[in-house]
Design goal:
The complex is a heterodimer of chains A (about 475) and B (about 475).
Chain A lengths: L1 H20 L1 H44 L6 H7 L1 E4 L19 E4 L11 H4 L11 H17 L4 H6 L1 H7 L4 H32 L8 H32 L3 H30 L5 H12 L10 H13 L12 H36 L7 H12 L3 H29 L11 H5 L11 H7 L1 H23 L5
Chain B lengths: L2 H18 L2 H54 L14 H8 L2 E4 L19 E4 L16 H6 L4 H17 L4 H6 L1 H5 L6 H30 L7 H29 L5 H30 L5 H17 L1 H11 L1 H5 L5 H42 L4 H13 L3 H28 L5 H5 L11 H30 L7
Antiparallel strand pairs in B: 1-2
The chains are: A mainly alpha (about 475), B mainly alpha (about 475).
């Protein structure tokens, strides 16, 4: 055991020394490091800019709500408020879907609106080539560096004739594998360490209104774990291919092909398949569905059978025959009643839409068993708080806030408005009863629990590559 | 004089080599699978969009029918007009909501070849008599994760994957011969080295180009593209020309790397590196540069500004009404459809108009900034053949941002016509009649001037040709010193 450790240590040291003396390592490593630092810097800057823009807009919107002047509470409900999507404090690592999801929603009376203003629509078409982010570097570029560092690990030894010598002096293939693996892990780790440290330091300066610092820390640690599994899997795969194939050239080509499929082809193909199997409805279809369902509710239509039924029910409940005799505002009651029937419809339709998204995501992740980026990307966005789940959490919070406004406005009518009085107005005191919308991102535990499947897929893939590496080194042919 | 003969000989020889390795079959298979799949995908995306358009049109005609039925009922006396909002004779609510009409841009003949920006820019805009902000920026529903990842369309195959295939076919063009020692033997023939390379390259380029172009044309025929129309032939011509130039660019790049006389593995690494730089790094860096030079103004701030304009107009509402009544005594004296409704809707229009100019200006400011940004991309695209190619293919397919802006400008013009039809009627308090319903304005899309697109695509071709020439010059110079023997 001890002897084995010594052998592994020797192999690893020699390998690491070889890597460090190779100009290629310093070149690719240096470029990678620079790119990561740029990505971190730009990511943080962008995040802060958007965050401050949204914070400013939020303050303006709330002030506009307070300053709207005296008016009928239901008019105030129609005036409504705007909600601006908060930026996750970890968005500088992985901005996820932020560019492709609406940033603003109008919370008005009677309806739950969709988010508007996808930043990507205001960007040029260059956006579609991708963004230079820490996630991009780690998901796409670092695996390429690994491929370049490891493709000739065994084939190179064989081509130089040193593999035969090594095996002849009693070095076991498994020791070679572990030694080389450790050396590459150390080399890649050295490259990533500065960026990771900076990332954690930046975390300390994070705006902690949305999430506690310890929560962010837990999320970050899990991010590190996820990326470590992904990259170790790549190292194992590169070593396995290098051991299994006859020449460096072939190993390189196979590994590059895998890298291309993993990074560029599989994600798109899976997206298309996801669309095919669970199609997203068009806006018109979605709206039609809601409009159709809303026909059962009365809105402002006083001839609607549901309205008549409700009126009769209220009159009966208060034991009067005329609306004028009701002790409470009938208009307030109808508004509240109509809103409540609307909520169920919106919950159902948005729930169905988000379910389609979730099914698409799950389908996409299945490719992760073979091409791990399919599982890593959602994992990374999920922990960075920039995936659909976090978006929908905010959308839900905004909708609940909208309902809070509706209820408060209708209840003010119910209590204070006299039936038949068209001039009833409320004032700032009522508007102030609605506190500004505050949103906290879900706690780390929830985010991690939701990524369990993806993490499992990543782990299975990683273990499979390790098994592949072990079996192919066992069958290693010295010549 | 012997050049063509030699070239033919090299071609034949390469062909036999490819045959022996079944490489030609592999290349054909890969291209067939990729292009075929891209076609299926592009076509199904187009169908989906057309279904959405169709659903929109159906929804509109159902809505209009209901309105007309209601109006007929009121005219016949069988139906009592309810509130203003439900009254089909009320020009305000009909123009602003009930009769809102879809402005649609039809797909171009080659739309299925590049999904481009069409997943962000819906092909239909629901125009109403309300101010522009109420409808102009509406978006289609889509899973943001899908938008993030992008689509596997023909443009993706050409821009991203074809270069990889070219790299795989040519990274060891010379180095392999060199490493096997066959180069020295080949050079004992009276064939100059450049000719050998030209022959090898030419064969590969012809193979890749003819297969890609052939499968694409097949694909277009299979999906029923009308190739008899002048427009579609022209678009196809541009597409083929762009494809050829782009393929030549990548072969020129591969040659330039080959003549550096490194090992096959080093060539493969260098070419992969260049692929990453051209397709991933340069576009992101240019994107960053453009964002720094012309930062996108915050839409969040815009929302606040527009709302302030609306609120101010609302606060001035009574003054606006008073001014209007003073200036137009003839309109206020008219008998009203229903007095309380008329006063309320007139007030709404006056408020809307008061806010309108400010809102138009705010939004125009954003458009200007975005246009500046796009202009700088138009210049900087020359730095990366990949950007150039992607934009050009989008332009040929009509799924580029510029065609969407072309639609937006027409929508703006149509919006004014639409408002001009309804709003005066609101202010005059004239009810809509059945005859008015037949006269509602209709949007019809006018395609971009062909010359404009042609000029741009010509510039794109030139932009691709320049690096080809430079790389070829470099290769020819380096070739003189190429070490034939190890």
């Amino acid at each position: 055991m001890n002897a084995s450790a010594t052998v592994i240590g020797t192999v690893a040291r020699k390998e690491l020394l070889g890597l460090l003396r190779d100009a290629r390592f310093w070149w690719t490593g240096g470029i990678m490091l620079v790119l990561m630092l740029i990505a971190l810097f730009l990511g943080r800057q962008h995040m802060q800019r958007v965050d401050s823009e949204h914070a400013a807009a939020r303050a303006v919107a709330y002030q506009q709500w307070l300053d709207q002047g005296d008016k009928n509470p239901h008019q105030a409900a129609h005036f409504g408020q705007y909600a601006f999507k908060p930026v996750s404090p970890l968005a500088f690592v992985d901005p996820g879907i932020d560019q492709f999801v609406g940033s603003t929603v109008w919370m008005e009376a009677h309806k739950q609106n969709e988010f508007n203003f996808r930043p990507a629509r205001d960007a040029t078409s260059l956006q579609r080539f991708g963004e230079l982010t820490m996630a991009f570097v780690l998901q796409i570029l670092v695996p390429l560096v690994i491929v370049l560092l490891a493709f000739s690990a065994f084939t190179g030894e064989r081509e130089r004739g040193t593999l035969r010598q090594l095996l002849s002096i009693g070095v076991k293939p498994s020791q070679l594998l572990v030694g080389k693996g450790l050396a590459i892990i150390a080399a890649v780790g050295t490259l990533l360490l500065p960026a990771a440290l900076l990332g954690f330091i930046a975390l300390g300066f994070a705006d902690n209104q949305q999430a506690g610092i310890s929560d962010l820390f837990v999320r970050s640690v899990w991010l590190v774990v996820g990326y470590a599994i992904y990259l170790i899997g790549f190292i194992a795969l590169a070593l396995a291919v290098s051991a299994a194939l006859p020449s460096s050239r072939k190993a390189l080509i196979v590994l590059l092909a895998f890298w291309v499929v993993n990074g560029f082809i599989a994600p798109r193909v899976m997206t298309d398949l996801a669309r095919l199997f669970c199609p997203t409805p068009s806006k018109v279809e979605f709206q039609n569905g809601i409009n159709e369902a809303r026909k059962a509710t009365f809105g402002h239509d006083e001839t609607h059978p549901a309205f008549v039924a409700f009126r009769d029910e209220v009159l009966k409940q208060y034991n009067v025959t005329r609306i004028e005799d009701l002790p409470v505002s009938f208009r307030g009651l109808t508004l509240r009643k109509d809103d409540e029937s609307g909520y169920r419809i919106y919950d159902e339709h948005y729930g169905a839409l988000w379910n389609i998204y979730a099914r698409q995501e799950r389908l996409r992740a299945m490719a992760g068993f073979a091409f791990p980026l399919a599982a890593l990307r959602p994992f990374s966005m999920g922990l960075a708080g920039t995936d659909s789940f976090h978006q929908n959490q905010f959308a839900t919070a905004a909708e609940l806030y909208r309902r809070q406004i509706q209820t408060a406005m209708s209840e003010d009518l119910i209590l204070h408005h006299k039936n038949g009085d068209d001039r009833y107005v409320s004032n700032r005191q009522l508007w102030e009863k609605i506190p500004a919308l505050e949103h906290k991102i879900p706690d780390a535990g929830t985010a991690i629990a939701r990524q369990g499947l993806n993490l499992g897929i990543l782990l299975v893939w990683m273990l499979a590559t390790v098994a592949f590496a072990v079996t192919s080194t066992r069958r290693l042919r010295p010549l | 004089m012997h050049t063509t003969l030699y070239l033919k000989e090299i071609f034949n020889f390469e062909r036999s080599l490819f045959r022996a390795d079944r490489l030609d079959f592999m290349v054909a298979l890969i291209l067939f699978a990729a292009v075929g799949y891209a076609f299926i995908n592009g076509q199904s995306w187009m169908n989906k969009q057309q279904q959405a358009v169709h659903a929109a049109q159906t929804e509109e005609s159902v809505r209009l029918h209901e309105l007309k039925d209601k109006l007929a009922g009121i005219d016949a006396g069988s139906l009592k007009p309810g509130k203003a909002y439900e009254n089909p004779a009320n020009a305000y609510w009909v123009g602003n909501r009930h009769a809102a009409t879809y402005a649609i841009s039809p797909p171009t003949p080659l739309a299925a070849t590049a999904i481009g920006q069409s997943d962000l820019n819906p092909p239909y805009v629901k125009v109403s008599a309300d101010n522009k902000e109420a409808f102009a920026l509406n978006e289609e529903i889509e899973n943001p994760g899908n938008l993030l990842i992008g689509n596997f369309d023909l443009a993706f195959v050409v821009v991203f994957l074809l270069p990889l295939l070219i790299i795989a076919l040519s990274y060891n063009l010379l180095s392999a011969e060199h490493e096997q020692g066959t180069l020295a033997i080949a050079m004992t023939n009276p064939v100059p080295l450049w000719l050998l390379i030209a022959g090898k390259l030419g064969f590969r380029a012809v193979l890749v180009f003819s297969l890609t172009a052939g499968i694409t044309i097949m694909g277009l025929i299979v999906i029923d593209t009308d190739l008899s129309a002048m427009d579609s032939l022209l678009a196809l011509g541009w597409w083929i020309a762009l494809l050829l130039t782009y393929i030549l660019f990548w072969f020129a790049l591969a040659t330039a790397v080959n003549v550096l006389a490194k090992s096959s593995a080093q060539n493969a690494m260098m070419l992969t590196g260049l692929w990453i730089v051209i397709l991933l790094v340069l576009p992101t860096f240019i994107s960053i540069a453009v964002n720094v030079a012309y930062p996108v103004p915050s839409r969040a701030a815009m929302v606040g500004l527009i709302r302030a304009a609306q609120t101010d107009a609302n606060k001035e509402a009574d003054a606006s009404v008073a001014r209007f009544e003073q200036e137009h005594p003839e309109m206020t004296a008219k008998p009203l459809v229903k007095s309380d409704d008329a006063a309320a809707t007139r007030k709404r229009v006056l408020v809307q108009q008061a806010a309108s100019e400010r809102i138009t200006q705010i939004m125009a400011g954003y458009d200007r900034q975005l246009a500046q940004q796009q202009r700088s991309v138009d210049t900087l695209r020359l730095l990366s053949p990949a950007i150039l190619m992607q934009e050009a293919l989008n332009a040929v397919a009509g799924t580029d941002n510029s065609r969407y802006r072309h639609l937006s400008r027409q929508v703006d013009a149509f919006h004014r016509v639409w408002q001009g039809f309804f709003l005066p009627k609101v202010l005059e308090n004239t009810p809509l009649t059945f005859a008015d319903y037949q006269r509602f304005p209709h949007f019809s899309y006018v395609e971009r001037a062909r010359a404009e697109t042609n000029l741009r695509l010509f510039a794109d071709l030139l932009g691709l040709a320049v690096p080809i020439v430079l790389l070829s010059l470099f290769s020819v110079r380096r070739l003189r010193n190429y070490p034939v023997t190890a």
